[in-house]
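FAQ

Q: What does a record look like?
A: Structure on top, sequence underneath. For example:
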C-alpha cells in the first residue's frame, strides 16, 4: 500500500515558497536549487496531486521571491551534487549562477556541467568544479579574480586556453585526473603559460618546472604502454 507522508505536498517546493520564515539566500551555505519535475512529468508519474500547491505568481510575488533569494549578496556558496537531470533544471541553475556577482568561494562539484562560458563571477577567488564534464579551459566561467582553481576529474585533454589565466592572480591550480596531465613536460608547460602560478596539483613550483618546455604544441601526448 502507498501512504503519503505529511511532507509529500512540500517535496517539490523551494524554500521561498514555504510560509512564515525569513531565510534569505545569502544565509544558506549548501542549498538544494534543483527544481522539481515539470507539470508534464508529474502527470506522467501520477503525482498531479502536488500541483495543488502551485499557483499563478504575480509580478509582485516574483519580485519578493527574487529579493528573498538574494543571491547577489552570497559570498560563500556550495552548489555541489545538484543532480541536474533536465534542461529546465540546468537553466535554473545557470540563472542562479548569473546572480552571484559577489561570491568569493564557490563549489560546483559533480553537477555534470559542460559549459559555463556565458557565466561571469567577477569576485570569485576560489572555484571548485571537480568531477564535471569540462573538456576545455574555454568552457569555464569568466573569473578575473581567481586565486585557487580546482578542475580535478574532468575531461580536459589539452592545455590550450590555459594562457587566458595569465593575467589573473591565480596561485594554485589542480588538474589531477584530466587527460592533459599525461602530456610530455606537463608541469613545465603549465608554469611557462602561468608564470605567477605557485602550486600545481598540490605540489609547489620546483626549479625543474621553470625549464623551457621542449614540446611546442599542446596536443602532443606521451604514449603509455
Amino acid at each position: 500500500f502507498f501512504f503519503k507522508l505529511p511532507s509529500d505536498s512540500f517535496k517539490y517546493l523551494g524554500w521561498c515558497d514555504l510560509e512564515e520564515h525569513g531565510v534569505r539566500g545569502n544565509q544558506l551555505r549548501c542549498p538544494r536549487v534543483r527544481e522539481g519535475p515539470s507539470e508534464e512529468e508529474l502527470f506522467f508519474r501520477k503525482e498531479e496531486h502536488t500541483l495543488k500547491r502551485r499557483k499563478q505568481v504575480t509580478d509582485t510575488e516574483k519580485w519578493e521571491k527574487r529579493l528573498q533569494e538574494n543571491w547577489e549578496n552570497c559570498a560563500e556558496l556550495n552548489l555541489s551534487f545538484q543532480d541536474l537531470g533536465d534542461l529546465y533544471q540546468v537553466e535554473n541553475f545557470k540563472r542562479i549562477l548569473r546572480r552571484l556577482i559577489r561570491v568569493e568561494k564557490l563549489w560546483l562539484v559533480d553537477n555534470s556541467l559542460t559549459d559555463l562560458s556565458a557565466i561571469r563571477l567577477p569576485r570569485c577567488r576560489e572555484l571548485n568544479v571537480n568531477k564535471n564534464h569540462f573538456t576545455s579551459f574555454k568552457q569555464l566561467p569568466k573569473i578575473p579574480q581567481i586565486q585557487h582553481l580546482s578542475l580535478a576529474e574532468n575531461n580536459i585533454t589539452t592545455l590550450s586556453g590555459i594562457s587566458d589565466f595569465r593575467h589573473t592572480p591565480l596561485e594554485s591550480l589542480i588538474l589531477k585526473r584530466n587527460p592533459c596531465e599525461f602530456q610530455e613536460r606537463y608541469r613545465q608547460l603549465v608554469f611557462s603559460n602561468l608564470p605567477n602560478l605557485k602550486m600545481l596539483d598540490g605540489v609547489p613550483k620546483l626549479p625543474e618546472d621553470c625549464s623551457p618546455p621542449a614540446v611546442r604544441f599542446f596536443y602532443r601526448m606521451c604514449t603509455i604502454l
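Q: Is there anything notable about this one?
A: DSSP finds four helices and seven strands in the chain.
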